[in-house]
Amino acid sequence: MIQFDEALQAILEQTQPLNVIQRPLKECLGYTIAEPVIAMYDHPFFNNSAMDGYGVKSEDIENASKDSPVLLTIKETIQAGDYSETELTSNSAVKLFTGAPTPPGVNAVVMKEFCTEKEGRVLIHRPAKINENIRFQGEEFQKGQTVIAQGTTITPPVVGFLANLGSDQVKVYRKPKVSLLVTGNELIAPGRPLQPGQIYDSNSYALTAALNEMGINPVPVFYTKDDQAETRQKLNLALADQDVVITLGGISVGDYDFVKEVVEAEGVETVFWRIAIKPGKPVYFGRQQQGGKNQLIFGLPGNPVSALVTFHQLIRPALLNMMGIPPHFSIQKTTAQLETPLKKRAGRLEFVRGICTADQKAPSVRSTQGQSSHMLSGLTTANCLIHFPEEQTTLNPGDPVMIEPLHWR
Q: Rounded to an integer, what distance in angstroms lies between the CA atom of residue 4 and that of residue 269?
């Protein structure tokens, strides 16, 4: 049995960003940019008006006021999408709309609200500073400049920015292909009436949702009874063309726990089995090379909380690393003041489901109701995990504790 930090390090050592692919801009949300994005143009591409108004020479209206407006002749009207090279002369103006190019000679734009237009002329009721309300070519960034760093996750603003750059294809890291293998004679699908001895399969739904929240889909799900031959058959189906297989249940030491035995019989190299944590002690991790692909196999306990917590703490960082997101971005910890007392036996690091609140002083945290590994309700309200150190047996109200936010997306 190994320590948690040692287990996580062993997993991360087996993961790296997957191969680079090119995706259409409309289909790249949630991917990670695989190479720096370089601007092909200045932005803005040309000088333009920041609002509706009138382009002027600022020196013509330096004495303008509400009581003594300056009268200028409107020489031209320019909309967004138009273009003019006619130079503005003194004592004249050009009517501009937001985004319209400013022609030569214009060194300020007066907002429409401070102007009165009539019969081809305009009264300017206030002065304007040089460069006022003008967006200048290249003021945001210039051609050849790196504008998006490698490793940036593509969010809706990033999609918009890439479109603004003129990109319709983006080089990104491929997302891992992940399948689930669910074991257990007792499991039935939700929606059917329960019979004595049966329970609803929640793990495949929860893990599929967790993977979908990371942008990983589709997620093939395979089911097997607690039978060695069937488990072996379904494992091979789950492994086909996948980067990662996650098994659920059948990984402990019971008479009908066949997963570890089967994966090793199929040539999977065991990296570790069992971690000094609660929940999730009987976690398995192995690897194999198949068809030139490095495949990772995770065996998670069948208890719903154990499955989700170990997924969040061990598998999620590995998948993000494969997607090009380094672990230090995905694993974040902070301290908080404990509100509720906690007790446990020494010997294992315990992840206590908690609810963290923050005020103006410092964050505080309390444990949720229902901390047993089969009690999923506590995890539905939790927004963090309290790290209860391995050798400690008690934590008291007011003690500082390490917490880790629960991030699923």
A: 20
φ and ψ at residue 252, rounded to 5 degrees: -95, -145
The set of residues, in sequence order, having a beta carbon less than 8 Å from that of 294 and lying 6+ positions away, is 14, 243, 287, 288
Q: pTM (2 decimals)?
A: 0.87
Radius of gyration of the chain (CA): 31
Domain spanning 334-405: which superfamily? MoeA, C-terminal, domain IV (2.40.340.10)
pLDDT tens string 175-191: 999 999 999 999 999 99
CA distance 232 to 266: 8
Fold of 48-135: Molybdopterin biosynthesis moeA protein; domain 3 (2.170.190)
Record the tokens describing residue 398, joined without a space: 């007011």
Phi and psi, residue 84, nearest 5°: -140, 140
Alpha-carbon distances of 60 from 68, 88, 118, 249, 388, rounded to whole Å: 13, 12, 19, 81, 72
Round to whole Å and give the CA distance between 8 and 356.
Answer: 24
Q: What is the DSSP string of 207-272?
A: HHHHHHHTT-----EEEE-S-HHHHHHHHHHHHTT-SEEEEES--SSSTT--HHHHHHHTTPEEEE
Q: Under a CB-based contact definition with an 8 Å cutoff, are residues 168 and 141 in contact?
A: no
Residue-wise pLDDT for 294-305, tens only, equals 999 999 999 999
pLDDT (tens digit per residue) in 95-142: 999 999 999 999 999 999 999 999 999 999 999 999 999 999 999 999
